[in-house]
Amino acid sequence: MKATFRHGDLEKILRQLLRVVPSATNKVVLKHVLIEAKREEDRVDFYASSEDMSLRRTLFVEATDSSVEIAQSGSCLLPAKELHEIIKRANGPVTLEAQKDHTAITFGKTKFELAGLQPHLFTPYGDVDEQVTTATVLAPNLYRLIRRTSYAAAKSLVRPILAGVHFVLADGHLLAVATDALRLAQYTVPCEDVNGEDRQLVVPAALLDTLAAALPASDDDEEVTFTLGTSSCTVSWGDDAFHMALRALEGTYPNTARLVPERTTHRVVVERQMLLTACERVAILSEADHQRAEFRFTPSGLTVSATSTQYGRAEEILEIIQGTQEDIELLCNVHYWISALKALEGVAQVEIGLNSPLQPCLLRPVGDGGVNLIATVARSAPMETKRQAS
């Protein structure tokens, strides 16, 4: 193999591949990237893989101003981190030439000889599903779908299925739901060119966050081919220059539809950024063990406060666009609010739906779809009351 690359394009691809390379693994081969140059097909494929996902990036030989020139077909398997560190410091075109027991990397007057592994040792993750459903989703929509739901997935593995995002592809729409049993996030985006039967799959939230980081979220015209199988999910875009396979979780996701109330007694509208800033401020003095904050809604305003038995109290009063008809107070994990409000980035106003201090509150973006559900916390009885009761 011998190919010459533009420095910037090669560095960008290696940086993307590193998102997939596991930081800790007993399989040394997974710390490497596979590079395959195919002169007859005018393409160079780059592969990185973990045990749960794989990523292929492709550079095509263009007629003019090409980012790669292929002198000889072949392949090499090189340590990902070390290769990226070398290319990151390169200047000008970079040539990779695979030799018998190493790969020569040259740019300008600099030359590295990097030892690797035999290419046949590398097999990227990828299940061959016989039954799949394929749809086309705009890249910004898929990015928004992941960002607005994955944060609510469980971080522990007490219930492994809750560590994933539940995808449902049906009726020309892609629905995503995530919950850790104390909060819930749900969002839906439209699909086109759906091919196959209705299908659902649970994909680990951590893998989806890696996908979201690579998506061209600012390109309103970029279409992503989204495929759900029986045990894996694949996505591709850029005329197949980007291809990722993600392993699904096994198990049945709980029925979350019944958790979202059909209506709420109180409706509050407030500026999202203003509420986020207030939550972040009072969170400084929320108890480390409980992370609770009090939200007091009135017809004229909203007060967010938190108390630390060791350090003191924080309180912020917010102006609201629409208030409740009566006073209502509730306790919540303030960091759940922070995560939900951050996930709604780009939304100007949010609607808060309330029923009672002991029922979950709804958080919806005004002018957009989706819903977030945050559980409330029961207030502890005062110590004196507890003593009298005993």
Structure explained in plain terms:
With 390 residues, the chain is an alpha+beta fold. It is built from seven helices and 26 strands.
Task: Tell me briefly what this model is.
This protein has 390 residues and is an alpha+beta fold. The chain contains seven helices and 26 strands.
Q: What percentage of residues falls in helices of 4 or more residues? A: 10-25%
Helix- and strand-based class? alpha+beta
Total helical segments: 7
Distance between the termini: 80 Å
Task: Show unreliable segments.
Answer: 382-390
> Any idea what the radius of gyration is?
25 Å
Q: What composes the largest sheet?
A: 9 strands, antiparallel
Q: Give the rounded overall mean pLDDT.
A: 92
Strand order of the largest sheet: 6-2-3-4-18-17-16-10-14
Beta content comes to 35-45%
